[in-house]
Amino acid sequence: MRYLTFALAKGRLAKNTLEILEKIGITCEEMKDKDTRKLIFVNEELKLKFFLAKAGDVPTYVEYGAADIGVVGKDTILEEGRDILEVVDLGMGKCRMCVCGPKSAEELLKHHDMIRVASKYPNIAKDYFNNKKHQTVEIIKLNGSVELAPIVGLSEVIVDIVETGSTLRENGLDVLEEICPLSARMVVNQVSMKMENARIMKLISELKTVL
Ligand code: PRP
Predict the structure, then answer these.
(1) What is the CATH superfamily name and number for domain 4-93+183-210?
(2) pLDDT digit string (tens) for 2-51?
(3) Which of 2, 18, 127, 146 is most buried by a 10 A CB count?
(4) From ligand 1's centre to the CA of 94, what distance in Å?
């Protein structure tokens, strides 16, 4: 039996994923050691390997087959646009991708004005404005704290994740339009799905019973 390799997005998502996997008897004790600098972890008995990667890199590892399976947010899947199979909605980390800004920007959206849109997700923003709204906009890529952009005058609106809404509230911004719901998803490499179909389908059906 060959190893099945999992790429997990570093952080809370990886921790929660391991908890779900434990419920179906998949454990990886050496991964729980907080002080370890190891990058790859093995469960010899089940012939499984796990590694942690930056969220944005998980779809890349899975598309190229360096990982058979990945767990990552839908935001990252949409932004990266990789050729991978999305197989399970894990229901964790539920939030929304939204267009946000000051209430005054509502009119600019309504009238399809040429506006600037700041985002950590330039591809999602581009796709939404070009293909769904048919509005020509200038996209400005940022790397975080995107809510700053409309406050300091970098852009009229932002495209960003809204979870509780408190970041927006505390900065005098609102959700102006909703783009899509988000949550953590399991993704699979196209070839692995064919070559290891029985093992992967069993994993998917067992996961669904505990979700
Ligand atoms: C995310 C997101 C929002 C915030 C939304 O940022 O980009 O800023 O969380 O959460 P809320 O609706 O519960 O306030 P994150 O904390 O990941 O950091 P970042 O700003 O560096 O992207």
Answers:
(1) Periplasmic binding protein-like II (3.40.190.10)
(2) 999 999 999 899 999 999 999 999 998 888 888 888 889 999 999 999 99
(3) 146
(4) 13
